[in-house]
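Ligand-bound model needed. adenosine-5'-triphosphate.
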Amino acid sequence: MRTASPTDLMERIVSLTKRRGFVYPGSDIYGGLAGTWDYGPLGALMKKNIKDEWWKDMVQLRDDMVGLDAAVMMNPKAWEASGHVDSFADPLIECKICHQRFRADKSDEIAAHEATHKGKKVAWTEPRQFNLLVEAYLGVIEGEKQKIFLRGEITNGVSVNFKNVVDSTRIKIPFGIAQIGKAFRNEITPSNFTFRSREFEQMETQFYIKPEKAEAKKWYEYWKQNRMEWYTSLGIKKINLRFYDHAPLERAHYAQDACDLEYHSPFGWAEFMGIHHRGDWDLRRHQEFSGRDLTYKDETTGESFLPWDIETSAGVDRSLLFFLIDAYQEDENRTVLKLHPKLAPYQAAVFPLLGNKPLLIEKAREIYHELKKDFMVAWDDRGNVGKRYYSQDEIGTPYCITVDFDTLEGAKRPKDTATVRDRDTMKQENVAVAELADWLKTKLR
Ligand code: ATP
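Prediction:
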């Protein structure tokens, strides 16, 4: 196995993802738009798989969580209430030589920039607060348009619907609301591929509990462990994960306690999800600004209170990037993405041994169409089988199914069996054609 330097590794991953259709620079044919990325056919599949797995784990398999899909555009008062209009800001400094701006709290980015001015002493301006909310304007009449904000985080749509959810379901505290959706930030320095983008997606849970310290501690620890286990169960190596606990001054304006789950990336330890004890910040502020009663009534004790919220907030794009980096390997003769089969864009590929034998093609197409009813399956009949394996390994397809003459007639193997080659062990096994779908299902459990 070759080990690339961190910069080489990132370059190789960026190049592979573009070449194979995972991620393209946004608006590429117009010279791009900084901080935006478009997911290609394979990236879109992998992103969907991550979100589906997350939703299954958080909503489908739990009795104490419900889902929500709130609007991106909200009444601007919601952003005043949540504190984002006043406090959703990064400290910004400007290089006095070239006037580029950087976040004052990112010392590695500052040092990297200073190095570009070879040997010159770089002076910086004093830090200024820079609000990250992206503004948009709604309405048809020029001059009467209403300024709104594209959501800077997806939490607000959940907080303003807390009462709706309680009133329209039978859910009782402790319970959570899960949501996946786009967020937008006017990031000063979009960087490290998709890691820091201006448009990105989040997967969040707001978990509402009784406002008691012991409860908060219990659930905060519970979610830390739960999320760590989720990422490792999907293949991220534990050694590449750690928690970073925020000191009081580092915490966001809404947080009483906070930590980041970080990944050991080629560009250093980097956050890709956060766990925040938000207390009753959101509900209290929305209650105050909207004038609506948002308290929860506990039917057994008769008490009314504003619950506390323990949040888990993960980035879909950063998760995808780190799943890719963690899975990327170069062996002697191949590049392979050892992605968990549940996350790989295709769960299987089907090949006829030879691309010019109609009977083989017909049988392989039949299997391909049958499997497509339950799985994402790739088809390849170009070149030889070795090249096809190479191509599927590079995009992480865990199983390659080959239809050969034994499938049709049986000789060395029983008739109606196909060979299935495992991406990681590169070993082959024979599986009856009629059992292929069940066989794959078991592998994906
Ligand atoms: P950072 O310090 O890296 O800017 P943050 O602490 O502001 O991140 P949160 O507000 O806690 O991030 O957002 C929760 C998650 O949303 C992050 O862990 C990350 O996965 C994702 N996220 C936040 N900002 C971006 C971004 N600009 N691009 C991609 N993902 C992001």
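The longest strand covers residues 268-279.
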